[in-house]
Amino acid sequence: MRKTYSIILILIFGLGTAIAQPLTTRLDSLIASRIKDVAPGCAILVAKNGTIVYEKAFGMADIELNVPMQSNMIFRLGSTTKQYTAIAILQLAEQGKLSLQDFIQKFIKDFPGKGHTITIENLLTHTSGIIDYQALDSKAANQNFYYRKDYEPKQVIDLFKDEPLAFVPGSKFSYSNSNYFLLGYIIELVSGETYKDYMKKNIFDLAGLSHTYYGGYKEIIPNRVNGYARYNGKYENADYLSMTIPYAAGALASNVEDMFKWHQALYNGKLVKKETIEKAFAPFKLIDGTLSNYGYGWFIKDLQGSKTIEHSGGVDGFQSDELYFPAEDVFVAALYNSLNEGGDDESFMYLSNDIATLAIGKTLTNEIKLSDKLLKQYTGEYALDAQHTAIISLDNGRLQIESQSGGLPRSPLFAETENKFLLKVVKAEVEFVRDTAGNVTQLIVHVNGQDQVCKKIK
Q1: Given a cut of 50, is residue 258 above it in pLDDT?
Q2: No. of H helices and E strands in the chain?
Q3: Are 360 and 376 members of one domain?
């Protein structure tokens, strides 16, 4: 689930310097050097012009059993699930069983409108104003909401349906898992089938996805990868999470080959009409006429000046990323078997983005290797102001930065010179400054043409 950050931050883009090796060699080197900062293992697929040009696995699928990762193994997708749910809704719309302009109360009778019209299209585009049920910590804690209890969809909806809207529907974009949870329940009400059964028959089977599942724990799923939580650079087995909690917003599981088959099925018209897909891949227009960066189940963004149609996902033990570059006809799928402590970890996205950057023929900034002795001199606490501090730590030969307030999760810095580092989660450069005695006294964050000076306090 993509986030915006407060302390030093805008949003991620790309990088630059030429390397002449073949793509396979560059990708092998990039992934092998970086996967240790992201997860125990991963599976990566790159396709160009409809043909797979790179498919490999790295690391471990199961640490305890010493099982190496293989590229055909099954991972949870997290929020990448949302595009599958969106296509199911669009199928039902094409069949005349619902309209995207239908009020959601047409199907969920007791869902309060709160004085506004909330449409299915608002749910698809994250413009409903409905609060994300994952933010309901106090209510959730009383019911073990995020853990071992299985719920019927209506039980979860009842937990958030009476919460006030965050804004007038259609006026803003705000990513909320509640939107896609509601869409899953609407699929059940309209089709008369469970979400799991509808997806198997009308999405997976129709698209030829033989390795895509509603990923519950009870099912025997061959080649399923074990998921891990990362705590301060060390791995633990991920906590149990009932898949009735993420449901239509994040409960599916797949492998990289099926993700590519899914991509092809969308463009080959196996699931919905061409004009429907074009609408799904178009930014939604808000009430004031501005465009969001989200269509129906996909983000529409930019990487190194190239348009992307993409989505990422994080769910206990797993992270996923999928990017398509329509102008270059390049598709990238990346699956990882770890989730960082405290939720989404952006390290997987900037690795995926670097993979994609190479795949479309663009170049990365070279990273230089610095000694631990030098890097330790930069560790400590730096204050931007009374409310915002940044912590610099050293982990396995790489500096990490995080904000004490939690706005920026622990993220690696990449050395460009002895004192300048790239922060890839945003388009920013971090520079460490010494006094005349050679002591490190401050860091300067260069972002968006501005400098933010943080004084070293510890």
Answers
A1: yes
A2: 12, 22
A3: no
